[in-house]
Design goal:
- The chain is of the alpha+beta class and about 130 residues long.
- It is about 40% helix and about 15% strand.
- Strands 4-3-5 form a 3-stranded mixed β-sheet, with no helix packed on it. The chain has a two-stranded antiparallel sheet with strand order 1-2.
- The radius of gyration is 16 Å and the shape is globular.
């Protein structure tokens, strides 16, 4: 699937993969400008949208930031654990999480189409430094 990406999208994906933390669209734009000097905000947003569409990246809603997809989730929406101290993000790929949320929503008469699950707390490393 990576072969279908243009150079701007490949640069954005590489930036997300190399980052030690989630990146905002403007941080991705800064990286894009190193090789595409005239890149503007819509350039970054279009690249990020394409990466999300292809399942290569995710948007963290609570942080308004992006991460590279790091797991196969077989059509299920992943969940994310986000460390409040160091910013580390772990993609959780347990389909039971989404199934439980969807079942609860359906019991309430709601027809879910997408779930965004983000759990904020402290990672094991940061807990050890307390």
């Amino acid at each position: 699937m990576v072969a279908t990406l243009n150079t701007t999208q490949m640069t954005a994906l590489d930036a997300l993969r190399r980052a030690a933390r989630p990146l905002t669209a403007y941080e991705v734009l800064d990286v894009l400008r190193t090789s595409h000097v005239s890149a503007a905000p819509p350039t970054a947003y279009r690249a990020l949208s394409k990466l999300i569409e292809l399942g290569l990246a995710h948007r963290l809603e609570s942080m308004n930031a992006y991460v590279a997809c790091c797991a196969e989730h077989g059509g299920h929406d992943p969940a994310f654990s986000i460390c409040r101290d160091c910013g580390m993000v772990v993609e959780l790929t347990d389909p039971g999480i989404e199934a439980g949320i969807s079942a609860a929503a359906r019991r309430g008469g709601f027809a879910p189409t997408k779930s965004v699950i983000e759990v904020h707390g402290r990672c094991a490393d940061c807990q050890g430094h307390a």
